[in-house]
């Protein structure tokens, strides 16, 4: 089976991660109600006529994808894979409101067309004239990881030599407010703001130019807090690793009651491991783990952990294996293992 | 070695029946499920025809023995019912016996509940519980809970090719040895959102749709869910399981032409069919029947016909669209048509393309119009969606 090498990692987020090359040196915790993305200058990347029709998610996705392909030196990928938890929610809101307000009359098709979940993947393909495999995963907090799993499978089995894989979600205007209300109803709801962003990654079976390896991804729907550590142990064993081989863990803590899953590991098997917590700077959204994945990639590339992300004060000289663990409300769990190459 | 990945169970609910047997009977007698919409109140009631599942939500909830206060979107209800049938059909009792995954698909998600309660979310905190069903992954989670699947669970949404892609992923995961067993398929209910969306695109017919007919006027939307159980060679051997058929070929390609329209030369469809044949290691002449995408829109049927002709030349096999019976069930279409493809293999027959009168003049390749018994070893099933997403699957009897 072939190895899945990572050649580029591009992220648009609530921090200055797109243009700025300082790996979160100037980043800060988001204190506003929502963690809106810092948007690139889209007209530098997309023809003006096309920009007008694109919602923020599509724009973020298309530009992050483009930049990711550039940096990976991939002209036309042999697969395009996108994960999105909520899809094109802004256009969904537009069409829903028009539909209800006008009682099913005087509707225009544009927002309906753009509301389709695979719009980002389709727009990337259209822009590149890429006729290859094109897939969109929409399973909550494992939308992106489902895509990673597919990307790795394509490369391992030689179904594709190069893959563009990413995740994207946009805040929209209304759903995020409603989801906030739901959180406020909980005894211990999510404490970090809801956010948005996009991350795209160029992967290939070729090693030259790569800085990391996507070693393994495991996606699973449910597990008890009591079983999470043994579940992880089995995952690591499968990859010939022990807990102490992990040089840094990136966890998707968001402050809600389900953080016990992370705390369980942080306080036991990873007590002496550098611990990274990123959602206070990225915000929480279904594909927020893209930010974690991006940070994991750059950590391996630069061999350093940004101060703002480090939860304990432990650092290492060398970072060889990095583990990401994310879950949402005790469901949609994923382990992602990255290694330096 | 077998050609593909074994199918050991299937379940389905559509406008032409609430289980495999009912669907099979309707197919054999060309009994249509297209009619006037009754479960949804819409301004367009008189100017559209739909393939609606007759059962109401409470009837389905009752048959699933769901507690009174559970909130299931209609897609989750339809999906749970069909997926449970599939497990039963595959005679699976202990789900955790093997590494079992679920790959479902949907485009509508919980939109039926969202559109009903949307304007109350701001003012009434009580109704916010309905919002939780909105994300596309929700129906899949409900199905996973119903089946007791705790391991790999995911959802695909690539418009009208979604379920075909779910079947493809399941087959690939088994082939690569990542899972022993995967339940694959899709579910979509009717909603005002999709009805009005397709209405604004002006591709809904006000009559019973007529796929591949020269005078076709557009599609009829439908609702359905269907699931297949795919199992590895090792499980089949160990449990001595009966195999219904095999997923032997699969492919996805992108038309890269337009967000909603297909290219004139049907490039995406052509590439998908070509690659699926390659994966199955089959020559075009070995395909005995094509269950076409055939939505009855002007654009799709012409583009698909061109692509079919490009692949099969002058020897186009029997092909038909079953959407004149079921309506276009969007994300579920690839799954219900997979079930029909397997029925075609089991019954050794080709289903007629009902409502057809005159071939598309540009091409003059008429679909099969009569029910016929014949030797069927390999069936191709096409599913194409918005965003140029084109998928083709091949099902084989051995």
Automatic annotation (TrEMBL), chain A:
What biological process terms from GO does the record include?
A: fatty acid biosynthetic process
Which regions form coiled coils?
none
Query: Is the keyword Transferase assigned to this protein?
Result: yes
- The lineage's top-level taxon is Bacteria
Which keywords are on file for this protein?
A: Transferase
Gene3D superfamilies found in the cross-reference section: 3.40.47.10
Q: Name one GO cellular component term.
A: cytosol
Which InterPro entries did the record assign?
A: Beta-ketoacyl_synthase, Ketoacyl_synth_N, Thiolase-like
Q: Describe the location of the Beta-ketoacyl synthase-like N-terminal domain by residue ranges.
A: 40-178
Gene Ontology molecular-function annotations: 3-oxoacyl-[acyl-carrier-protein] synthase activity
Q: Membrane-spanning residues where?
A: none
Pfam hit, one: Ketoacyl-synt_2
The protein in question is named Beta-ketoacyl synthase-like N-terminal domain-containing protein
From TrEMBL, chain B:
Q: Which Pfam families match?
A: ketoacyl-synt, Ketoacyl-synt_C
Q: What molecular functions are annotated in GO for this chain?
A: 3-oxoacyl-[acyl-carrier-protein] synthase activity
Which parts of the sequence belong to the Ketosynthase family 3 (KS3) domain?
2-397
Cited InterPro entries: Beta-ketoacyl_synthase, Ketoacyl_synth_C, Ketoacyl_synth_N, PKS_Beta-ketoAc_synthase_dom, Thiolase-like
Q: A single GO CC term, please?
A: cytosol
Asked if the Swiss-Prot or TrEMBL record annotates the protein with the keyword rRNA-binding, the reply is no
Q: Where is the signal peptide?
A: none
User: Biological process GO annotation list?
Assistant: fatty acid biosynthetic process
Query: Which family would the database say this protein is a member of?
Result: Belongs to the thiolase-like superfamily. Beta-ketoacyl-ACP synthases family.
PANTHER family tied to this protein? BETA-KETOACYL SYNTHASE, POLYKETIDE SYNTHASE-RELATED
Name listed for the protein in its UniProt record? Beta-ACP synthase
What is this organism's lineage?
Answer: Bacteria, Pseudomonadati, Bacteroidota, Flavobacteriia, Flavobacteriales
